[in-house]
Design a protein that fits this description.
Elements: H1 2-21, E1 46-48, H2 51-60, E2 64-67, E3 90-91, E4 96-97, H3 108-122, E5 130-133, H4 139-150, E6 156-159, H5 162-168, E7 174-175
Parallel strand pairs: 1-6, 2-4, 2-5, 5-6
Antiparallel strand pairs: 3-7
Length: 190
């Protein structure tokens, strides 16, 4: 029986290794579903950053870090008297959090919120380095970085490991709060 289990484990490990080696191709459009899934290793028009590269940029303060992880809204149907505690978000220190801007389709108000956030982060300089991230295996950052490239930004760094990779490297995180936005932008199209 133990020999059979060993064979099954070996087959599963081999299958996992083969799957891990598969690359995810860049889609022709924005990803609009299953946002927590393996992401491509590339993003045309952007530089893909490792944790070490992102850390070097962060330490040298040569780029602006932008988190695009969605922000959990307060549930509308909470019973009266229920205390709502917003889930905390821990970010790379100094980041700007532009939540909900990584969905595949954005409401016009959310797209304007992203445009304004990128303009503020870059101080109007389309060549300023903007490092866009979320979490590991999160298409939100890929979509948002691709959108920034489409908006004419020429120095986009995409950090696909996001806060997961940052934490795994034992780098500092701090509590984050989203950039203020108009209420109309609070519900993306997804």
């Amino acid at each position: 029986m133990a020999k059979g289990v060993g064979v099954v484990v070996a087959v599963l490990v081999a299958a996992a290794a083969a799957h891990a080696g598969e690359s995810v191709p860049e889609p022709p459009e924005y990803r609009t579903e299953n946002y927590r899934a393996p992401v491509p290793a590339t993003l045309v028009g952007a530089r893909v950053l490792t944790t070490q590269e992102a850390e070097a940029i962060w330490r040298a303060r040569t780029g602006v870090f932008i988190d695009v992880l969605p922000h959990a809204p307060k549930p509308a149907n909470l019973p009266s008297g229920t205390i709502w505690r917003e889930p905390p978000r821990r970010d790379i220190p100094g980041s700007i959090w532009l939540p909900d801007t990584g969905y595949g389709r954005l409401a016009p108000a959310t797209e304007d919120y992203l445009r304004q956030g990128l303009a503020q982060a870059s101080e109007g300089d389309l060549a300023r380095l903007l490092v866009i991230y979320c979490q590991a295996d999160c298409w939100m950052s890929w979509n948002a970085a691709r959108r920034a490239v489409a908006l004419g930004y020429t120095n986009i760094g995409w950090y696909p490991e996001g806060t997961d990779g940052w934490a795994k490297a034992d780098l500092p995180l701090e509590e984050a709060h989203p950039q203020p936005r108009p209420e109309a932008a609070s519900q993306p199209s997804r």
